[in-house]
Amino acid sequence: DMTDRITKVNPPLRTIVKDRKHSASYLLRPDTQATGISPLLCYTAICMLFTQASDQNVQLDILQGILPNEPKNYREERRRPDRDRWQEAREREMQTLERNGTWILEDAPTDRVINPLPSQWVYKKKISSSGDVRYKARMVLRGDLQFDHEFKDTYSPTARVTSTRTLISIATQQGLSLRSFDVEAAFVSADVDCEIYIQPPPGHSFPPGKVARLQRSLYGLRQASALYWNKMQTFLTTYGFEQVADEGTLFCLRSGNDVLYVSMYVDDALVAFSSDRMYQRFLTALRKEFTLSS
């Protein structure tokens, strides 16, 4: 009866009520108001969906739709009904960082006072093309609290729009193939250039009497982008690329009649090449230093 009454008053709710999994999040979207659904009807429909749901997982989906998509901090995470999913995401992140040797544990120095840099969690839900939701938690350092002696250079260039358009134009005129790739976890791929100690993120701890000294860059560091760019630039020039004059992010490699251009925009790359074999050799070498996704 409740379903019929609501859908008669507001026809757009008819399809919403049938699709219980995504209904709550849809009802609370800002653009839902454009369909003529009033806030009172939204609230009524959500309550109806929750009480009719016999499966606990369906009820959890509805609650997650009512709550903000991601928690703002660790304290809020622990108050949410999906806190176990976020805890699993945090543990995966910590295991990955430890496996990559992001820091080493050592005895606290006795000859000086250290001020370990605080860290925090940034939460994100990612939805795959199949509709599956993946919970991701990223450990981020409080770079705003870094001292001057804990960083050097913070600058990293980015490709200009005109440079990218010029490269595409050259590729079109010369019949070059175009490909792009993304450097995954770019800002955690380089070694740090200063002595930096860090605190564990909320919900985790280091062994008693031990401190963590950073070995590899982490998100939030003021020099993270510069460290990544220096590593990428060193790789490209060592491989044989020449940096195009006045274009800090455009590189060119020539071998006989073949040519390969690489234009970098932070962790995204646009590649133009005349030889597929030349391009594959380049990718093979690059994957030894970085993790890539096409």
Give an account of the 3D structure.
It is a single chain. The protein has 294 residues and is an alpha+beta fold. Helix content is 38%, strand content 21%. It has ten helices and eleven strands. The chain has helices at residues 2-9, 13-18, 20-27, 39-52, 56-66, 74-78, 83-99, 161-174, 224-239, 276-287, and strands spanning 103-107, 119-127, 133-141, 177-184, 197-198, 210-214, 242-243, 250-255, 258-265, 268-273, 291-293. The chain has a six-stranded antiparallel sheet, sandwiched between helices. Helix 3 (20-27) runs antiparallel to helix 4 (39-52), helix 3 (20-27) runs parallel beside helix 5 (56-66) and helix 4 packs antiparallel against helix 5 (56-66). The longest helix has 17 residues, at 83-99. The radius of gyration is 25 Å and the shape is globular. It starts with a helix and ends with a strand. The model is unreliable at 1-22 and 30-34 (pLDDT under 50).
**Number of discrete helical segments:** 10
Mean pLDDT rating: 82
Strand order, largest beta sheet: 7-8-9-10-4-11
Question: How far apart lie the N and C ends?
Answer: 51 Å
Summarize the structure.
The chain is an alpha+beta fold.
Main features:
single chain; alpha+beta; three-stranded antiparallel sheet; 10 helices; 11 strands; 38% helix; 21% strand; globular; disordered N terminus
Question: Layout of helices and strands, plus pairs?
Answer:
Elements: H1 2-9, H2 13-18, H3 20-27, H4 39-52, H5 56-66, H6 74-78, H7 83-99, E1 103-107, E2 119-127, E3 133-141, H8 161-174, E4 177-184, E5 197-198, E6 210-214, H9 224-239, E7 242-243, E8 250-255, E9 258-265, E10 268-273, H10 276-287, E11 291-293
Antiparallel strand pairs: 1-6, 2-3, 4-10, 4-11, 5-6, 7-8, 8-9, 9-10
